[in-house]
Amino acid sequence: MSDNWSLKESHTFNRRIIDDIRRAAKTGLYRIRGGGAKRAVPSFDDLVFLGASMSRYPLEGYREHCGTEVTLGARYAKKPVRLKIPITIAGMSFGSLSANAKEALGRGASAMGTSTTTGDGGMTTEEREHSQILVYQYLPSRYGMNPDDLRRADAIEVVVGQGAKPGGGGMLLGQKISARVAQMRDLPEGIDQRSACRHPDWTGPDDLAIKIRELREITAWEKPIYVKCGASRPYYDTLLAVKAGADVVVMDGMQGGTAATQEVFIEHVGIPTLAAVRQAVAALKEANMHRTVQLVVAGGIRSGSDVAKALAMGADAVSVGTAALIAIGDNAPQYDEEYQALGSAAGFWEDYQDGTDPAGITTQDAELMKRVNPEAAGRRLANYLRVLTMEAQTLARANGKSHVHNLEPEDLAAVTVEAAAMAGVPLAGTNWVPGS
Amino acid sequence: MNRRLQAPEKVTDFRILRPQGAHTLACGLNAPLTVRIAGHVGYYCAGMNKQATVIIEGNAGAGVAENMMSGTVRVTGDASQSAGATAHGGLLVVEGNAAARCGISLKGADIVVFGDVGHMSMFMAQRGRLVVFGDAGEALGDSIYEARIYVRGKADKLGADCVQKDMRDEHRDELRELLAAAGAPEVNLDDFKRYGSVRQLYHFNIDNAGAY
């Protein structure tokens, strides 16, 4: 980088843009990468809790109980999912992640009494073994889909879309299609796998209602059925999911990660999680289904304050994906030299599609994946989930709530006009909610 | 009804009368039963079937035998779209026509259609075989992987990466076995043409961008 301070960098054609143009001109390919949107968008950081004072009184931080348990899927399922904390692990496939990484996620989540989720690649035995509560994704590709695993699952998540790429299908490049991944997906080894973006046997909400009924019939009406949407039109998508018979709606905002897709998709399709929560909650209230059909919010959840703010806006639980990977060792500084050798650096690595992850998480390389010790990584994930939970409880108590679900929009204010408009809470110090 | 079929005690032969287009009938079966359905059925009949033989004496709605694992499903009339979608194993026989997306994302099952199949049939089919006595609609076998297709009638609008291939003796043998298993009418095997993947889209190549 030049240290000539008289140079003025163009905002429109800055170094990153120039690099993008040069790369496109050289390769003729669009950029494919993993992770979520890197651009700045209004987020939960733009909200603050008001806390207690004269008109509200707080609960004692170390004395008074603040509940965190949540039940998902009691609308129709005979066996709803009961979680001890309102934080779940988002769907990530075996294939995109190594078997050790999947095991670590299962161990960490189980230690905290919460669920993990399969991904676009079927259910592995190890995953089922190490996840006390396992949500089985029902995806357009149907890789590895079978009725035995449906019955072994604790819940079924019909994936309509994901936050990183609403309207797009999965992608797993050849270097990650190992013999085992190929066998599970019925694909030739080493090819670039393109997952379908649409389900093969239903096309709209009326068909989806019958599809959900089929899944219930096959599983004796025991399993909760989630419907997961990428946040694009959350109000209508939530209403339609409820109409189709979902027990739970999962809404994944644009900050949500992916194993691999086109960067233009990651950065330019979908809306921020903050905006999606408000619209999804509005739809549930409109349908008189708020708290009857649960809402799980995902996409860029990092801290207990994110958890608490999502719940205060009306979500029943949240999902973490990228943060969970970081907790088990993704982008760890100890591998900085290796990340640099790959043209990146610890904290910046996003080429999950390459299968060369020095941390052994987003890879199928037998040697690299040994770097993930499932027990130790699982403990780190449990620690992280414990911290998120304690932070959310701290904020709930500070607002006088004896359960994290008692948090409400009235406990929040926004520090930017944009966030106030998106979240539907007043700009701090005013009674003004833009658009209301 | 599905509860009884899914957990049969001593009975192994069932006959369902007047189904009246019911959806999700006989889905999730997992025993060597024979289920005869006397009439038309709705969506996802015999979905995810394992082991059972399901005979639909009429037409079937969308997604008949979807994601079948094993067993046999026979439709004496026509089948709507997505017949046999993503099926991993077993045999689906449609004595009439099958609509669009027949065998979409097929993962190992066999499908034999005595009539025509609609557009986008065998789209992204991974493994398994489709036999069509009649004509195939537009974009047959688009983005197909290792599945194989035999068509007796017209198939002149193939999808991306799908091409006509040589019929060798092993393919004639395979076809003969499939037709016998399906109880198909006797025909001259040389009337069939074979289609499959040319494997040019297996790895992203900018020169193929127009095909994606």
TrEMBL record, chain A:
Pfam families attached to this UniProt entry: Glu_synthase
The organism's place on the tree of life at top rank: Bacteria
InterPro entries attached to this UniProt entry: Aldolase_TIM, GltB, GltB_archl_type, Glu_synthdom
Domain Glutamate synthase: 74-329, 357-401
Entry keyword set: Oxidoreductase
Family: Belongs to the glutamate synthase family.
Name by which UniProt lists this protein: FMN-binding glutamate synthase family protein
Naturally occurring in which organism (per UniProt): Candidatus Doriopsillibacter californiensis
Automatic annotation (TrEMBL), chain B:
InterPro entries (UniProt xref): Glu_synth_asu_C_sf, Glu_synth_lsu_3
Record SUPFAM superfamilies: Alpha subunit of glutamate synthase, C-terminal domain
Domain of life: Bacteria
CDD domains in alphabetical order: GXGXG
PANTHER family (UniProt xref): TUNGSTEN FORMYLMETHANOFURAN DEHYDROGENASE, SUBUNIT C (FWDC) (PTHR39673), TUNGSTEN-CONTAINING FORMYLMETHANOFURAN DEHYDROGENASE 2 SUBUNIT C (PTHR39673:SF5)
Protein name (Swiss-Prot/TrEMBL): Uncharacterized protein
